[in-house]
Amino acid sequence: MSKIKIISGMNAIKAFSKDGWIPNRQVGSHVVLRKEGSKVTLSIPKHKELKPGLLRHLIKSAGLTVEEFETLLK
């Protein structure tokens, strides 16, 4: 497994948006993203830092690999 960079919630939202995930609603500090044709929703906290385990879970739920997600960050 490759090591995941620690990023902010806003950077994660921007990266997932490049892959077609659209902000659907916000509940407190969490932004819920949906993607057309997917039954999965992603709930991303708008914190300064996302822990690596949470970020890895979000990436896996989105159907991406860590390498694909890192290319979306650029």
What does this protein structure show overall?
This protein has a single domain (9-73), classed as Hypothetical protein (Metal Transport, Frataxin, Chain A). The protein has a three-stranded antiparallel beta sheet with strand order 1-2-3, with helices on one face. Helix content is 38%, strand content 22%. The chain is built from three helices and three strands, in the order H-E-E-E-H-H. It has helices spanning 9-18, 52-61, 66-73, and strands at 22-27, 30-34, 41-45. It is globular, with a radius of gyration of 11 Å. The protein is an alpha+beta fold. It starts with 8 loop residues before the first helix and ends with a helix.
Features:
3 strands; alpha+beta; 38% helix; 3 helices; globular; 22% strand; 74 residues; Metal Transport, Frataxin, Chain A
